[in-house]
From TrEMBL:
Keywords assigned: Membrane, Transmembrane, Transmembrane helix
Chain spans, region Disordered: 338-367
Coiled coil: none
Transmembrane residue ranges: 50-73, 85-109, 129-151, 172-191, 254-272, 279-298, 304-324
Record-given protein name: Uncharacterized protein
Annotated organism of origin: Anthropogastromicrobium aceti
Length: 367
């Protein structure tokens, strides 16, 4: 939005500077210097507009929420269990493969088939539904597969060595599932949420400091097309007039998505470790509900951002509630350990700090 559109246009013009200057000279000769004599005030834009202070405050809150929630969960897990970096890495991998690589490859292959390409080009709703379906299906499969690999690395890292040898704890991977779910939800927060909010916050501060008119002047000097500048200013106006709550929702949406993935990962982990079919059933249901919502939202049926936010909250609550009930049934000790206070005698969730073991005194016999 806003500055991003103008910056993109500026980079495009910079790459073809010679062509832009030639077109500007030609237009100037034909219109009697109308282009080169333009000033920022000639564009249809009110330079006195400012981004509301409430919007900036909510951007900061969104930024804080996106950072605080994952950090809090990671620290809590670290203080109560052995921190398993493998599980977190597998979560990041699950998102990259299930949401990024596989759906993109399938869509590119489908675009090579002429009838399919024509159908999707003529039916944007069908294209959106296909895109969302691929994301939901393969993200779920990626979480499932990565959970299996993650368990092999974290079997004995989430508990004391003495506890790991007990038969009832040999398949315990609660911490692994939680960290994997955090990894799945953390990547979009870092790659999308934080970068977008930071760019919006920077744009808002620049606008309120009155730097926009000087930016337009420099673009005119560089020979950018007035139509491109006007399009950028139109985007800027939309950015300024955006309801303040939408900037908050930009961050909270991704946080609720993280919590949804967290619940699904825990449910899948319980199924893999305890063979609980109800856990897999609930995981599939949550993922299906999440996918239906995404598909409906992609079609533009739901216009209200507030309604979308409420649905996000409901789905995240359903996911966590399903995980909660399964944990109480199959992993009550881990749930109690996660909710309880950290043991001050333990370091990083590991074995208790014991005093150094004294070697027995050896008395040599006398001759």
């Amino acid at each position: 939005m806003s500055f991003l559109s103008i910056i993109t246009a500026a980079s495009t013009a910079a790459e073809s500077a010679a062509e832009s200057i030639a077109e500007t000279v030609a237009e100037t000769a034909a219109e009697g210097g109308a282009v080169t004599s333009m000033v920022p005030e000639d564009f249809a834009f009110d330079y006195t507009m400012r981004v509301p202070v409430l919007s900036i405050i909510l951007m900061v809150i969104a930024l804080a929420v996106m950072i605080a929630v994952p950090v809090y969960l990671i620290i809590r897990m670290k203080n109560r269990f052995r921190f398993d970096v493998y599980a977190l890495t597998f979560g990041l991998l699950a998102y990259m493969v299930g949401v990024g690589i596989i759906p993109t490859v399938i869509e590119l292959l489908a675009a090579q088939i002429a009838p399919v390409k024509e159908f999707l080009s003529a039916n944007t709703v069908a294209s959106d539904i296909l895109h969302v379906t691929l994301l939901i299906v393969f993200s779920f499969l990626a979480i499932f597969v990565c959970s299996r690999f993650s368990m092999r690395h974290s079997l004995r890292k989430n508990m004391n060595p003495e506890e790991a040898n007990l038969p009832e704890n040999k398949k315990n991977a609660f911490a692994s599932s939680v960290l994997l779910g955090l990894g799945v939800g953390l990547l979009p927060i870092v790659t999308q949420g934080l970068s977008y909010v930071m760019s919006y916050l920077s744009a808002a501060i620049s606008i309120n400091q009155g730097q926009l008119i000087s930016s337009v002047s420099s673009m005119l000097t560089e020979g950018m097309e007035p139509s491109e500048i006007q399009n950028g200013l139109n985007s800027m106006a939309e950015f300024i007039q955006t309801p303040s709550l939408e900037f908050l929702f930009l961050g909270t949406d991704l946080v609720f998505q993280l919590l949804t993935f967290l619940g699904v990962a825990v449910l899948i982990g319980i199924f893999l470790n305890r063979k609980a079919k109800t856990s897999m059933f609930k995981a599939v249901c949550v993922q299906l509900i999440f996918g239906i919502f995404f598909a409906v939202r992609a079609t533009g049926v739901i216009k209200s951002v507030a309604v979308c936010e409420i649905i996000y909250i409901v789905i995240a609550a359903l996911s966590l509630a399903a995980a909660w009930t399964e944990l109480k049934t199959y992993m009550p000790d881990d749930l109690e350990k996660f909710l309880g206070k950290p043991d001050p005698t333990r370091k990083n969730g590991g074995p208790k700090n014991q005093p150094p073991h004294k070697m027995p005194k050896i008395v040599m016999p006398k001759d």
